[in-house]
Amino acid sequence: MTALPEYAIHAIRYATREARRAEHFIRGDPHDAPMPMDYFVWAIVGPERSFVVDTGFTAEVAARRGRTFLRCPIAALRLVGVDPDAVDDVVLTHLHYDHVGNFHKFPRARFHLQDREMNFATGRHMRYMVFGHSFEPDDIAGMVRLNFKGRVDFHDGDADLAPGISLHFTGGHTAGLQVVRVHTARGWVVLASDASHFYEHMQTDRLFTTAYRLDDMVQAYRTVERLAASPDHIIPGHDPLVMKLYPAPSAELEGIVARVDLAPRG
Questions:
Q1: Above 80 in pLDDT, residue 19?
Q2: I need a labelling partner for 108 at 20 to 30 A (CA). Which of 34, 161, 163, 264 fits?
Q3: CA–CA separation, 32 vs 23, rounded Å?
Q4: How many domains, the chain?
């Protein structure tokens, strides 16, 4: 049997925002203390190929939505040795504004997306603010145009992307949310994206305030737990703890990049 590749995974922090606990939990929180939110893209670097998971948002979108933009996430890929011009495969976990912006900065990539997510983002639900406010119409139109150019690969449920990398449908947060399972030297790591925004969501079975189906959000926690080698192998989508728990690739990148394929700090 051929051994699976072992990938390095870089979590790149490109933006942040001040927020409070009540903003992150359905039904609020009795302790309405500060709870900042970070924004990430992820680079999966293998012995032969590199993959990108999500593409963040632009400085213009950050200004309009009141986010603190720290750096261009696509330019920041070069900090970990990934050339955006050479990337062939980009996984979009879903089409919210903070996960699909900057797609135009990958001139040759194919974008991997769930059928149900494109149907959701271009369908009847977008007329309602409760769903549509998290999407940027220009981003969605851009994905439609790329599909006409043959650059969107659609998946209907779970799929193998490459040896040691697989995509898994969860839904819940959006109609077509998917997570990414990656084989590393320490075992199977799951990039949970918005299946669990913060560690606390999964640990307490509480739900984030932006939701499509609450029942699927809860079941997504169980799916991610099943796919990961252990709870320490699950990487949530927006938790500032990721930068604290996992080591940077170098002292210069502390607070900017975390190596989530490595064991968390003791």
A1: yes
A2: 163
A3: 9
A4: 1
Note down the domain range covering 89: 8-259
Residue 87 resides in a domain? yes
Mean pLDDT, rounded, for 222-251: 98
Residue 1 lies in a domain: no
- Please give the Cα distance from 108 to 95 (Å, whole number): 19
Band of the pLDDT at 2, cuts 50, 70, 90? confident
DSSP H or E segment with residue 62: helix 59-65
Q: Is the pTM of this model over 0.90?
A: yes
In a domain, 68, yes or no: yes
For residue 188, give the amino acid letter. Answer: W
Query: 3-state class of 176 per DSSP?
Result: coil
Q: Strand pairing partners for 90?
A: 52, 111
Which residues, other chains included, contact 154 with Cβ-Cβ below 8 Å and sequence gap of 6+?
Answer: 113, 114, 115, 118
